[in-house]
Amino acid sequence: MLHRTKKGLMSMLVAGVLTAGLMPTTAAAHGGGDDDDKDRKLTSEQRKLVKTLKDVTEEYRSLAEAKEDGYKKVTPCVAKKGVGAMGFHYAKNSLIDAKTDPRKPEILVYMPNKEGKYKLVAVEFLSTAKKRPEIAGVKFENGPFPGTFALHAWIWRDNPDGMFAAYNPRLHCPK
């Protein structure tokens, strides 16, 4: 019989539930209009978070670098009909816990470009905290399974529904 660790079970749950597309549909902070207008709608704390996330994920814009650092594919492309797509989720299981560290996002979200090369579009925080976490004034949503909370940040791809929306209506999973 296989011995299953808490992190092993968490990994299986993350993969199964994200694959089913059961992530929340929207987040607390939404923007609209052009990029400058959306940036103005972010608080200074949120702009600082976005800058930090861009700084710490710059090297992961290359999927190969993310894989080298331990991020592993946990879902096929996640989409919700009529809402949009999230993309392909790559998680670093050692980061999935009750803590929220903007310098260590648990999940990186990728989508293929026109040439089929995977590009980083967003990060996702996944927390097992007892109470709903918040970062930069944005509360996490209910996560993909009981006892978890999640929050997306579309730092490398514009999302008309807002920086912290779960799905991006401009994205569609490849056929």
Largest sheet: 7 strands, antiparallel
Number of distinct beta strands: 9
- The helicity comes to 10-25%
Put simply, the count of helices is: 4
* Elements, N to C (H/E): HHHHEEEEEEEEE
Mean pLDDT: 84
What structural class do helix, strand and pairing data support? alpha+beta
SS strand fraction = 15-25%
**How far apart are the first and last residues' alpha carbons, in Å?**
38 Å
Explain this structure to me?
- With 175 residues, the chain is an alpha+beta fold.
- The protein is 23% helix and 23% strand.
- It contains 4 helices and 9 strands, in the order ααααβββββββββ.
- The chain has helices at residues 6-19, 35-41, 44-57, 63-68, and strands spanning 72-73, 78-80, 84-91, 107-112, 118-127, 134-135, 138-139, 141-142, 149-153.
- Strands 1, 2, 3, 4, 5, 8 and 9 form a 7-stranded antiparallel β-sheet that branches.
- β4 (107-112) and β5 (118-127) form a beta hairpin.
- The relative contact order is 0.22.
What is the element layout, followed by pairings?
Blueprint: H1 6-19, H2 35-41, H3 44-57, H4 63-68, E1 72-73, E2 78-80, E3 84-91, E4 107-112, E5 118-127, E6 134-135, E7 138-139, E8 141-142, E9 149-153
Antiparallel strand pairs: 1-3, 2-3, 3-4, 4-5, 5-9, 6-7, 8-9
Features:
175 residues, alpha+beta, disordered N terminus, 4 helices, 7-stranded antiparallel sheet, globular
Give a short synopsis of this structure.
By secondary structure, the chain is of the alpha+beta class. It has 4 helices and 9 strands, in the order ααααβββββββββ. The longest helix has 14 residues.
